[in-house]
């Protein structure tokens, strides 16, 4: 994607920030995105970032995705996260046969959610398989029409095979159990499949998809967007919300700074205190470090399009994801701690930002400690202890 196209999309996302921020409190109280938020995302083209061009999509490169999705977090973290999940899952749908894409992606502004922990089991049946499963943390499910899930296909006498399945939301039951400390507006409920038949055309082997980017689409085969392995690409895209929340915390803190004193001290202006200078500088440096790691992994994915990825390359992508999360959270924690007692009110954005990034940092795939250990393990000459590379 050229610089002018990237600039336009980033600009559109930036213009949404006030509108997204206005809906944030309602979204926390109702644990789902506001219809006005979804309308805003749709109008700005935020549902078409990873949609094939033949359906009116932009097929954004990875760096553009990081820039656009992180910009949404300046308005609201839950909105940014759901938009990220919809972008990831739309990309996955682009791996399925072209006739499946016509059905699922053809309408254009489709919303597809997804989870990647294989918590379902399928048994072969004529023309497909019958699945049972229960998938938690299914962000955006209440407002999606399709669901991409990981599962395990079992057949008598054969090794269980991890797969990705594509299901209409109407085939799934929803357990409204999303009562969380942060990311409340993401509506990350649990979905359940009971004896759901999935045709062969909507079942993909997971390991070739994750590790090699292999797919069953003829029309997407020549697109740069689908010439990358899923998990390094997903690692880059998943940095977006945390990086954006760190920037949001800095903006929120600096906006309040001129009007704040430090109670029970002689400082009539918080900005006069040396402690504040240290806090602002420390947070700013950590945000710059998060920026470095988010854009390093995005740039690597864009540069290596169509090229092989070594194990070291793959764990490096996971490392950059983990460090983006870690540095972003550190910056938010510093600024939140410096914001005073008044910041606990729900009308002050930084308390929500702090809860959102805390929740985001606990994601199993993105967790900094897990990814640091994985990188160190491989660097020390051991085999990776995960297939999620």
Structure description:
By secondary structure, the protein is α+β, with helices and mostly antiparallel strands. It folds into 3 domains: 3-110, Butyryl-Coa Dehydrogenase, subunit A, domain 1, CATH 1.10.540.10; 112-205, Butyryl-CoA Dehydrogenase, subunit A, domain 2 (Beta Barrel); 230-379, Butyryl-CoA Dehydrogenase, subunit A, domain 3. The chain has helices at residues 3-30, 35-43, 62-73, 77-93, 98-104, 206-212, 230-238, 240-256, 274-303, 311-337, 349-361, 368-379, and strands at residues 112-115, 120-125, 128-138, 146-153, 161-168, 173-175, 189-199, 203-205. Strands 1, 2, 3, 4, 5, 6, 7 and 8 form an 8-stranded mixed sheet that branches. A hairpin with a 2-residue loop joins β2 (120-125) and β3. α3 packs parallel to α7 (230-238). The longest helix is centred in the last third of the chain and has 30 residues, at 274-303.
């Amino acid at each position: 994607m050229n610089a002018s196209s990237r600039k336009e999309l980033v600009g559109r996302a930036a213009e949404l920030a006030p509108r997204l921020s206005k809906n944030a409190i309602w979204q926390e109280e109702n644990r789902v995105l506001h219809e006005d938020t979804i309308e805003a995302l749709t109008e700005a083209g935020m549902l078409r970032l990873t949609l094939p061009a033949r359906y009116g999509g932009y097929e954004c490169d990875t760096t553009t995705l990081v820039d656009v999705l992180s910009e949404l977090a300046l308005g609201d973290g839950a909105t940014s996260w759901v938009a990220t999940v919809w972008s990831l899952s739309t990309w996955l749908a682009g791996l399925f046969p072209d006739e499946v894409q016509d059905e699922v992606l053809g309408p254009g502004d489709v919303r597809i959610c997804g989870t990647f922990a294989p918590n379902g089991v399928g048994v072969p049946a004529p023309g497909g398989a019958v699945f049972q499963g229960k998938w938690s943390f299914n962000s955006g499910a209440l407002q999606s029409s399709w669901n991409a899930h990981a599962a395990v296909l079992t057949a008598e006498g054969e090794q269980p095979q991890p797969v990705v399945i594509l299901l209409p939301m109407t085939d799934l039951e929803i357990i409204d159990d999303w009562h969380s400390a942060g990311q409340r507006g993401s509506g990350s409920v649990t979905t359940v499949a009971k004896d759901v038949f999935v045709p062969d055309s909507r079942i993909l082997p997971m390991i070739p998809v994750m590790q090699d980017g292999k797919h069953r689409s003829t029309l997407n085969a020549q697109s740069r967007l689908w010439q990358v392995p899923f998990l390094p690409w997903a690692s880059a895209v998943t940095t977006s919300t945390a990086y954006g929340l760190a920037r949001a915390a800095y903006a929120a803190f600096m906006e309040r700074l001129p009007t704040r004193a430090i109670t029970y001290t002689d400082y009539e202006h918080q900005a006069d205190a040396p402690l504040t200078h240290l806090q602002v500088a420390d947070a700013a440096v950590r945000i710059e470090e998060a920026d470095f790691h988010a854009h390093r992994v995005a740039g690597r994915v864009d540069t290596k399009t169509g090229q092989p990825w070594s194990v070291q390359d793959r764990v490096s992508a996971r490392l950059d994801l983990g460090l983006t999360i870690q540095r972003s959270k550190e910056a938010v924690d510093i600024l939140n701690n410096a914001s005073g007692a008044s910041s606990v009110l729900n009308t002050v954005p930084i308390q929500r930002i702090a809860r959102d990034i805390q929740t985001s940092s606990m994601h199993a795939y993105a967790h900094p400690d897990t990814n640091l250990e994985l990188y160190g393990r491989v660097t020390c000459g051991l085999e990776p202890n995960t297939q999620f590379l």
